[in-house]
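Practice set, problem 2.
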Amino acid sequence: MMHPEDIKQLILAGMDCEHLELDGDGQHFAALVVSAEFVGKNRVQRQQRVYQTLKEKLATGELHALSFKTLTPEEWSAQRG
């Protein structure tokens, strides 16, 4: 079983994040990933980028249920008001 902090560290090791929130119960996880890497990318490309950082854990089945929201720093700032 994976811990949210383990997944967070994998994402942070694989890409530059301005902000990252991750929560989960060991089986299902939800993340908010804010990165300048998402500028100019559509939603699918953004998701692919995050999945790239987790591909080993996904391939082994150690991680299988992750939902996430991907935002650029500007989008995140606008949402926070």
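Problem 2, part (b): a different protein.
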Amino acid sequence: MRAAVLQVLSEVDCVSHTLDDVLSYRRESQDLSAPADEFLTGMTEGVLENINELDEIIAEFAPSWPVSHMSVIDRNLLRMAIYEMTIGGDAPPKVAINEAVELAKVFGSDSSPRFVNGVLGSVMETSVSKELSPITNSADTEV
């Protein structure tokens, strides 16, 4: 389902179609289950509602690469994974990173998986060291 999210975000980003139009087309062309449609809508809306904050995080962790100069795929994979890791995801950070890297292998350039993994790894390390909650601590120490 993340591949569909990537495709929707990339179309909105690259072609400037409205989210409503892109989601409507996606719903018409694919038979989405209710949970899949909910995930697709929630993730795309969440990323787009928080795009400025996400782009600031990307700029902080990839200072040599202006967000506007990144490939559409890399930029949107980073937005998706950082959104899941910091704002609105239920997936553990390692899962969000793994999913983004796998999508980068399929949709990105040869250097995309390494770039995406490096940026997201740095985001995860910084987020964990700054905002380690007691819940995360107890889950990490369980055997």
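Answer key, part (b): The chain is about 80% helix and 0% strand. The helical segments are 2-15, 19-29, 34-49, 51-61, 72-88, 93-107, 112-130, 134-141.
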